[in-house]
Amino acid sequence: MEWLDDVFGTSKPIIAMLHLLALPGDPNYDFEKGLKKVIKHARADLAALQEGGVDAVMISNESSLPYLTEVEPITTISMARAIGELIDDIEVPFGVNVLWDPIASIDLAIATGAQFVREIFTGVYASDFGLWNTNCGETIRHRNRLGGEHIRLLFNIVPEAASYLSKRPLNEIAKSTVFNTNPDGICVSGLTAGVETSTQALISVKNAIKDTPVFANTGVSISNVEAQLEIADGAVVGTTFKVDNHIWNPVDTNRVKKFMGRVKKYRS
Fold first, then answer.
1. DSSP code at position 22
2. Is 114 exposed, middle or buried (CB count within 10 Å of its CB: 0-12, 13-18, 19+)?
3. Collapsing DSSP states into helix, strand and coil, what is residue 97?
4. Domain limits at 196?
5. Residue 120 maps to which CATH number?
6. In terms of Cα–Cα distance, which of 83, 79, 123, 82 is closest to 99?
7. Contact call for residues 214 and 202 (beta carbons, < 8 A)
8. Tens of pLDDT along 63-95?
9. Interval 7-28: pLDDT, tens
10. Which of 55, 135, 62 has its CA nearest to residue 93?
11. DSSP state letter for 69
């Protein structure tokens, strides 16, 4: 648990999602305006999130739908370009997530100096993107070969739009994941981005792995954040910070300020 304070400077940290627009190779990429548009949008969202007082940001290619489980090189390269353009403006700890490719996420973290990664590192799933497999041992060894032992790994054990091929209970999955792979944190999600994480799921996972940080990964809002943080050790927040609470809209500074005001009051 101590690493949360070391990285984020607070207990119960709020990690804000910095969603990039569609990138080269993505179906919805704006060829005419190019990466300049992506970077301009990301810079505005970053400024709004930091002004609003978030504890950290996590940069992801959220608009790369439909997602790949092994991304094209251009995706990681484009994300590195965008982060390189933003790096002097980033004032809080930051992480990365290349959806849904753990090796690419590690590569991007190494290249940009990110302090943490969120990914699907374990399990086999039936998903909207096909049969989805992982190789955690390979990924951890890849990180260590690159000298990235310091990069904290947040394991999402409830992938969005997917279900385990195994029918084991979630608490058993959490317990064996911690025993076998020693994650720095566990993320528990709802069905998709913006869908509230089940309180029952959070309780079940937290009771199973009391010594490992557990994050509410989706659907945390100003109306439920206190209840979520009563159970979870932190939260990853995206949709609720957007204009009109819509995932593809820009970040609304006032929504961020109100949310973080409630969080800081709760923490105090």
1. P
2. buried
3. strand
4. 2-267
5. 3.20.20.70
6. 79
7. yes
8. 999 999 999 999 999 999 999 999 999 999 999
9. 999 999 999 999 999 999 999 9
10. 55
11. S
Q: Are 194 and 228 in contact (CB under 8 A)?
A: no
Domain count for the chain: 1
**For residue 129, what pLDDT is reported?**
87
This prediction's pTM: 0.97
Q: Which amino acid is at 211?
A: D
Q: What does the pLDDT look like over 45-62, one tens digit per residue?
A: 999 999 999 999 999 999
pLDDT (tens digit per residue) in 92-144: 999 999 999 999 999 999 999 999 999 999 999 999 988 999 999 999 999 99
* Of 265, 263, 221, the residue nearest 242 (C-alpha): 221
Do you find a cis peptide bond into 100, omega within 30 degrees of 0?
yes
Cis amide prior to 66 (ω within 30 degrees): yes
98 class by beta-carbon count within 10 Å (0-12 exposed, 13-18 middle, 19+ buried): buried
Please provide the size of the chain in residues.
268
Residues 206-233 have a mean pLDDT of 97
Tokens of 235: 């939260």
Q: In what order do the strands lie in the sheet with 125-127?
A: 130-132, 125-127, 162-164
